[in-house]
């Protein structure tokens, strides 16, 4: 770390987000505006002298020449975590690592890996792993008038309410992994501001041509599925279970296989005023 | 092999009630278990002092359905497999689910104990990540936690 500290740092920013203090410093002045969109949504600048996690971004200067590859290098504390000739790639690595760190280290909130929308004053959670189609479903529900909360994390407080984590939606336009970022406003939707109580948890898998006929799930089984998508359950199991217990009070759980998002999105939104616990929906 | 007559539940796990179900989190193995009402009731009765026949009697009252000793053995089998009993290395008497259903009858099948288990994910596994073979610049981006230095792809 001392070696890194000795490098010349031109500018930086310290932020507080969900109770976590993090900082980013840059070797070249003028790169900060590119870094700020990578920080977790809702961050506030902090004046704290020390941070829990410090990112150091060495920005390659000068033109790329034949035979010489100028690398942008990113360190998390003293560990080099990314290097590439493309600054955008390294900034994407910064975003991934920082968001993950915050989701793991936040003392104030429990992070569940899930897409979230707000509907009729309640949150609908779509837990799922990468490439399970969360963002596609969230996007479709936004089209139907839902409020955007997140396509990545359900952020749960001590009272069991769900807070927004409205990072831009990462939409895969084709079969490649490359994502294009869209703000909810670009999709004609609004971002949620207020924390919401949970209305429904929808566990679904995509299968081409499948018909959405979900079955209700018991609370115990549903909570087990939430644990499978909980970021910090291994580090803070007690706190995680406590918050999940408050989160799921009065919520319904359904599970099923879905086909195209537009076929299931409306039915999912209707869950909040069309069914009660224990019924086949 | 010595048979378990006085089963004892582990007390070092975190538990939370969800209606009649019980969620048990094993902090040593990082495994979550969902015990259905019958399994939860049986597990709570495993105090190392009650015999399996006593547990069966109490369960009959609690679940308002006749619970035979073979159902208790099935519960102990499930709990033992989930490593929720002390000294789980001693095998409990094996009882098949079919045999238990026969003893209970279809109407009593609701009293069949069931334990569903799931390994808690590591933070990297729980968050969005890239599958093996996808281009990466940082290990944090990959589900495997490995981004090949020379290949620039997840998984090495």
Q: What do you see in this structure?
A:
The complex is a heterodimer of chains A (281) and B (156). Chain A is of the alpha+beta class. Chain A folds into two domains: 2-105, no CATH class; 110-274, Rossmann fold (3-Layer(aba) Sandwich), CATH 3.40.50. Chain A has helices at 2-6, 32-35, 87-105, 134-143, 219-227, 237-247, 261-274, and strands at residues 11-17, 20-26, 44-45, 53-58, 72-76, 79-84, 110-119, 122-127, 147-150, 153-156, 162-163, 169-172, 179-182, 198-206, 215-216, 252-258. The radius of gyration of chain A is 20 Å and the shape is globular. Chain B has 156 residues and is of the alpha+beta class. Chain B is built from five helices and four strands; from the N terminus they run E-E-E-H-H-H-H-E-H. In chain B, strands 1-2-3-4 form a four-stranded antiparallel beta sheet. In chain B, helix 1 (37-45) crosses helix 2 (52-63) and helix 1 (37-45) packs across helix 3. Chain B is elongated, with a radius of gyration of 21 Å. The mean pLDDT of chain B is 83. The interface between A and B is large, with 43 and 37 residues.
Question: Keywords for this structure?
Answer:
heterodimer, A: 281 residues, alpha+beta, Rossmann fold, six-stranded mixed sheet, 16 strands, B: 156 residues, 2 domains, four-stranded antiparallel sheet, 4 strands
